[in-house]
Design goal:
The protein is an alpha+beta fold. Helices cover about 35% and strands about 20% of the residues.
Length: about 180
């Protein structure tokens, strides 16, 4: 069933499914037969904890947090995705990754002037919160400007369970033809 949707609002985004995603890309480099290593696995555990901590806030904002694991294994892939360290965490234009000093497998993570050998929960929390803020701001701007145009809305499918009320208005000002 296709329904013409009303002007989008923040309450629509927060109160109904599907929610808008915040995708966090988790890049690793394949090491021989392994898709990951112990250090990358530990980092992913810290990132998971940070996401679990932030998830209630994201839920309130109508944003679904999702980690997308990605693995590269060739020089061309490293160039294409501009991977300089493993692991590399990216979301909403931000990046969090360690340095590998002197070409060794050692990973040094720097956050707020402090350098450690493993990703600290506070650094992961800061990264996820900044990405969540950026995604929320992006969603707010999109909804403020009315979301999809009234022309596009006639073609958009909305499940009947989450369908907003149909209206002639196509945005906050209802000035569209």
């Amino acid at each position: 069933m296709t329904t013409t949707a009303h002007a989008a609002t923040a309450s629509d985004a927060a109160g109904s499914a599907p929610r808008t995603p915040l995708v966090i890309d988790y890049w690793t480099v394949a090491m021989g037969e392994e898709a990951s290593c112990g250090s990358c696995d530990e980092t992913l555990t810290v990132l998971d904890r940070a996401i679990d901590t932030v998830r209630p806030f994201a839920d309130q904002l109508g944003i679904a947090l999702k980690i997308t694991p990605r693995t590269i294994s060739t020089w061309d892939q490293a160039l294409e995705h501009q991977i300089t360290a493993s692991p590399t965490i990216r979301a909403e234009g931000s990046e969090l990754c360690p340095s590998h000093p002197d070409g060794t497998e050692t990973r040094l993570w720097t956050w707020r002037g402090e350098t450690t050998n493993s990703l600290q929960l506070q650094a992961a929390l800061d990264f996820v919160l900044q990405a969540l803020t950026a995604r929320s701001r992006q969603l707010s701007d999109y909804l403020f400007h009315g979301g999809p145009s009234s022309y596009l809305r006639q073609f958009l499918s909305v499940s009947s369970a989450t369908a907003p009320a149909a209206t002639e208005a196509c945005g906050p000002s209802a000035a569209c033809p």
